[in-house]
Amino acid sequence: MPRQKGERKYMKRVLVACEESQIVTKAFRELGHDAYSCDILPCSGGHPEWHFQQDVFEVIDNHDWDLMIAHPPCTYLTVSGNRWFTNKDGSRNEDRYRKRDEALDFIRRLMGADVKQIAIENPVGFISTFIRKPDQIIQPYMFGDEASKKTCLWLKNLPVLEATKMVSKGERTYFKSGKSHPKWYAEALTKAKTPQERSTLRSKTFPGIAKAIAEQWGGYA
Fold first, then answer.
1. Tell me, what CATH number does 149's domain have?
2. CA gap 24, 210 in Å, rounded
3. 181 in a structural domain
């Protein structure tokens, strides 16, 4: 288990918040770091012994962490959901505004957590407008995965990630409407049976990014 407050350090302790896939957690573990995932959902990464299924702030308060990587839910924070702020009758969707504000408060609490090094990732959205601009925007194709997924990073006491392997931006799937999605995204929409599954598939971290995070931030003092 992670060390309690005040215990002596033996290795870097890493909390990967809002992660059920354990992709980033495993990347840190492979390098010898004492990493744990945390989510209100059970983990799908195969290592429940490395997973806290509880409120993330309880985990932050009850243990001593050197680094936190957080992947907060983006449902109410992305610009792609702007159409839901207005009801069909043209009136203001008060519930949507309330949920957006709650999501922003969650981000603020994560940013203010008592952890020396913090990285928060999210798509382009309201964090930039209501809190602050990101320190960096990355893409999977900068780290060896042929795919496009613009991801913003907000950093505390961490350097920006350096690209490790530039590859192509990946294939796109085109629809009769003329719209298109990155192929990986279109496949996630097809594969998912429920909105929750769709959200989970869309939010998973690409392995190249997870590897870069573990290698570059795990060794950063």
1. 3.40.50.150
2. 5
3. no
Yes or no: say if 109 and 173 are a contact pair by the CB < 8 Å rule.
no
Residues 6+ apart with CB under 8 A from 149: 123, 139, 140, 182, 184, 185, 206
Distance CA 64, CA 2 (A): 7
Cβ(29)–Cβ(40) below 8 Å: no
Joined tokens for residue 193: 């049976």
Residue bearing tokens 């839901």: 84
Residue span of the structural domain in which 39 resides = 13-166+205-218
In a domain, 5, yes or no: no
Separation of alpha carbons 121 and 115, rounded Å = 16
What is the Cα–Cα distance from 202 to 182, expressed in whole angstroms? 11
pLDDT digits (tens, 9 = 90+) for 47-62: 999 999 999 999 999 9
- For the entire predicted model, the pTM comes to 0.87
Query: Is 3 contained in some domain?
Result: no
Q: What is the distance between the alpha carbons of residues 75 and 82, in angstroms, rounded to a whole number?
A: 11
Strand partners, 86: 92
What is the distance between the alpha carbons of residues 62 and 28, in angstroms, rounded to a whole number?
Answer: 21
- DSSP E strand stretches across the chain: 13-17, 34-38, 51-52, 67-70, 117-122, 136-138, 151-156, 172-174, 180-182
Any domain includes 160: yes
Residues 59-103 have pLDDT tens digits of 999 999 999 999 999 988 987 666 777 888 888 889 889 999 999
Token pair 């409407």 is at which residue?
A: 177
Domain count of the chain? 1
